[in-house]
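Hey all, sorry for the wall of text incoming. These are the two entities for the joint prediction.
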Amino acid sequence: MNMELSRRTFLKTSGAGLAGTTLGAFGFSEAEAAVAAAVKPFHLVNTTEARNTCTYCSVACGIIIYSKGDLKKGEKADIVHIEGDADHPTNRGTLCPKGSALRDIVKSQTRLTQPMLRKAGSDTFEAVSWDVALDKIARAMKDDRDANFVATNADGVTVNRWLTTGFLAASATTNETAFATYKVVRSTGILAFDNQARV
Amino acid sequence: MSQDLKPDPTVIGAVSAPPFAVLPDPARLFGVRAKRLRTYAAVSPLKPYLDFVAGLIEAQQAIVPTLPPVEAPAPEKLERVRAFEMPALERATTLLDDTLEATLDQLFDAAARVPMPEEAAAALTRVRLADGPVRAQMVRDVLAHDLPVERLAEHVYVAAGLQVHFARRAAALEAKKLVPVGDGVCPCCGGPPVASLIVEWPNAHGNRFCACSLCSTLWHYVRIRCCACGTTKGIGYQEIEGSPGTVKAETCDECHTYVKVMYQNKDVTIEPVADDIGTLGLDLMMRQGPYRRAAFNPFLLGY
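and here's what came out:
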């Protein structure tokens, strides 16, 4: 069966080429007009369903994120629901209790949305810019590495280890991101490194 | 503690292993559909039409037990279409055989008892008189979706008869032997879907099935994917503001069409054909947008 041909014929009948409708042909034009009048005061709203990966752990379950509002039209989209992706081979629609509560994490008032710093001697966190945060992390890492780097072992063999710092990278990354993370972190000498949060 | 009382975590929660296809049950199919239409008729401004279609579908149900049995395709033919990923029931070679003749005759007789406006009654009279080559041509045109505007009503009666015929033919097949034949194409009869359903079954939790407009077979189809062209890019969902969110228009920015998606997991009484007709208001609103209707429903042509 030539589906391409069939589909074209079908589009012809369902599109502008067809003046009449089934309702008109059967003599129900008034009922159709009544429906048109009934829906007139209403608007259409756009919702989106997007596939994504759960951010919690290395199982990387598929999720579907439902949001209201159309980003393509410049509207603000708002997440209204998150559920397991029934088509995903890993979890087939199921989610663990933490995954089931993902929407509450997104909406949580205590959710971390920017770098926070608690200065020495202070008892509160304050918001800082990413530049400040990254500079501070880099300084701390550099100081720690300079102080504790192990270039050679007791036998004088070069080992280049940095054992006093660990690194935990995110789940839901691509293979490429994981590869780049590994190369960067291992090149500093860090051994305590996990590329997916196994929590 | 006895052996039996040990906890077995493997039985907690069913793993979703949806079947590829679910064949229709002609003994119930049309009755459920008509009942759903009557539910819509009680609250919809489309009541006159919904009552008429419900009557027609009740006639479809009424004739099912009295029809002669349908012939299943030959096993070697089924093997061949399976090997070449073709629909199990071929449309192009569907002939006006004695069984189909009997189906159409009985349906037209039963339909005559449904209250209807003059136009519909006149069309029914004309289609009852048409026989032989004229009727065979109408069958071919309906199966090819090549419906002439000026004789649309007659062809819709024939389409209703073909729905009964193909549902019975599909029911005689083996669901496990069906194979995917293409995006948005029924594995039984090669037709486009009337809508898609998000289901909540014991073996399918939140999976999506397309519903065939001709033979009412349900086939598994990945969610958030265009039912007409198969793309996963630029899919949106439009619904009437303030509606319960059970029927939405799944729009595609690649082929600029939409097919309704129905959340049967939120409302178990949803029936694809009935709800498609019952939500005509959504189609009328979608008409003003850039998307065209890609679904096929003989009772809702021209939108």
